[in-house]
Each structure stands twice: as C-alpha cells, then as structure tokens.
C-alpha cells in the first residue's frame, strides 16, 4: 500500500517508480460499462423468451398451464436488472437533487457497488436454479390438457424455448459473477497496494485518486488550490459587508449544485488544475475529494502524501 510521509531522517522514503502500478480509472470505467452492457443484454433476451413462453400458453387455451412461480420471478428480475444498473450508473449520478455529502451521495461509494453486485449474483442464481427445478429439462415439458383438446403440433417449440431460458438464466448469472469477481480483484489490488480509502471513492471515479498521486499530479493540484484559496479569501474579506456581492462571487466561482457556501476561502479549489479525463461526473467527485486532502490538512489524505 502507499506509505505515509517519512519524518525520520534515518529512514528513506520509498521510491515511487518501484511501487505497484495504478490502473487507469478510465480503463476500469470502460471495463465495467462493457460487462454491464452484456449483462443487461442477456437479461433482456431472457425476458423476451420468457414472455414468448407465456404467450404460447395463452394462445393455446384450454391447455393446462405449468407452475409459473419461478418463471414470473425471472421475468421480474430480467426487467429490474437493466433498470437498476441504468439508474445506479447513469441516472442517479446525474440527478440534480443529489448533492455532495448527502445520504444518497454515499450510495455511489465502491463498497456499495460491490455489495450491489453480490446481491445481484444471489438473485440470479436463485432464479436460475428455481426455474431449472420447475420447468427445466425435456422430462418436465409434458403436455397436459383435456381429453377433447388435442396436443398442438408445435408443442416441442415451447419446450425448446423453456430450455433456452435455462441456458440464458445461467449465462446471465455467470456474467454477473464475472463482473463481481473482477471488481473484487480490482478493489483488493487498489486497497492493498495503492489506496486504503479507495472503497469510499465514487464508483464513477474509482481509482482516480491513486492514479493521479502516482503520476505526481497532486502536487500541481495542491499548488493551484492554494493560489485559488488566497484569491477567494481576499474577495471574501473585501465583500463581507455586501451580501449581494458575496452571492455574485459565489456564482462566478462555480457554486452550482454544491452551493454558494463552497466559494469561501476554506473551501476554495482550482477547477483548471484538474485532469480533463474525469468527465462531468468524475470531476465533481474528484474536486470534492481534493478539498478534504489539500495541503495543510493533517488528518485527511495522510496515506497519499509524498
């Protein structure tokens, strides 16, 4: 893991070039996006096939319906999976009513992301196994109807669809486990070798702090923060008797969703010194994290100092 700053004259600071390499945060983001997209596609295909099975039985009444419990569970889970991932990864981070420091903002932490992935693994394996026991296998696909109603000629077609749902459900579960296991390995690597606070990072900027520290960008950012703090402190002192001027200063300094209160000297920061590859969502979380770990703070970010 990253070493704290050495104060003893007899102990050398570790060579940063020999430390474990940090993973580029954009690689983590793209990897998670691709695997999640594949997972959602498999979930939607499972949903379509399940609906086709229900439609077949509805179109061939008065055929006796099999037990629908596990199939209905899979249909509901297949609908909720894309909704949950889209809302958690895209919609919620962009929501204007979620501000930095709110309770809902804490849901974006990496530890919550890993817990969500594990929960989805449990839900999918439960649905796949329950469906296989109820409707899986050709031995369970038997025609059950009344004496006056003949067996449909295409009844084997619905049997094929029922077996296809089994394969798709277990494939979706496998991709879900792969996503969770991959994120766990990445989390362990960053936590053990790079940054002990990585589990509290927002999932859309996961690994950014450790990567920037290893690249040495934190030095220029802290210098930019100190220059911006001096400018903001002077503007606040000069306008402390003019509330309207204070509000205008807050708007000019980019208060936005985070409010005018962040424009004072203690919360000032440099927007121009931040890396451009963060994007709009990562930039917000990264700048908020830099406030807690700027130069002169003895408690925040001790494990990431030189």
Helix-strand blueprint:
Layout: H1 25-59, H2 69-94, H3 110-135, H4 155-193, H5 208-215, H6 217-238, H7 243-252, H8 279-292
Helix pairs in contact: 1-2, 1-4, 2-3, 3-4
Describe what is shown at a glance.
Residues 226-237 have a biased composition (Low complexity). This protein is mainly α.
Number of strands: 0
**How confident overall, as mean pLDDT?**
77
SS strand fraction: under 5%
Overall structural class, as computed from helix and strand content, comes to mainly alpha
The coarse overall form would be elongated
User: What count of domains describes the coordinates?
Assistant: 2
Summarize the main sheet: none
Question: Count of helical segments?
Answer: 8
H/E element sequence: HHHHHHHH
Distance between the termini: 13 Å
List unreliable stretches of 5+ residues: 249-279, 294-306
Gyration radius, rounded: 27 Å
How much helical structure, as a percent, in the residues? 55-70%
Label this structure with key terms.
single chain, 306 residues, mainly alpha, 2 domains, 8 helices, 59% helix, elongated
């Amino acid at each position: 893991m990253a070493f704290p700053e050495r104060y003893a004259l007899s102990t050398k600071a570790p060579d940063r070039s020999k430390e474990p390499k940090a993973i580029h945060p954009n690689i983590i983001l793209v990897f998670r996006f691709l695997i999640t997209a594949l997972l959602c596609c498999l979930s939607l295909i499972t949903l379509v096939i399940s609906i086709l099975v229900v439609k077949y039985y509805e179109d061939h009444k008065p055929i006796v319906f099999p037990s629908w419990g596990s199939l209905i569970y899979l249909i509901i889970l297949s609908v909720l999976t894309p909704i949950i991932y889209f809302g958690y990864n895209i919609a919620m981070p962009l929501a204007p009513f979620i501000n930095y420091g709110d309770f809902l903002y804490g849901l974006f932490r990496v530890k919550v992301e890993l817990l969500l992935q594990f929960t989805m693994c449990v839900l999918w394996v439960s649905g796949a196994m329950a469906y296989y026991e109820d409707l899986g296998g050709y031995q369970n696909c038997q025609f059950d109807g009344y004496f006056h109603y003949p067996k449909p000629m295409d009844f084997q077609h619905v049997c094929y669809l029922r077996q296809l749902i089994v394969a798709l459900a277990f494939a979706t579960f496998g991709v879900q486990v792969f996503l969770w296991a991959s994120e766990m390995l990445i989390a362990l690597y960053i936590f053990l070798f790079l940054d002990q606070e990585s589990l509290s990072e927002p999932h859309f900027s996961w690994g950014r702090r450790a990567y920037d520290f290893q690249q040495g960008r934190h030095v220029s950012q802290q210098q930019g923060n100190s220059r911006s703090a001096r400018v903001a402190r002077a503007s606040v002192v000069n306008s402390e008797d003019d509330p309207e001027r204070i509000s205008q200063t807050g708007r000019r300094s980019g208060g936005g969703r985070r409010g005018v209160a962040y424009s004072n000297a203690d919360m000032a920061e440099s927007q121009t010194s931040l890396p451009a590859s963060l994007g709009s969502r990562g930039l917000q979380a990264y700048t908020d994290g830099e406030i807690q770990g700027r130069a002169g703070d003895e408690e925040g970010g001790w494990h990431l100092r030189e």
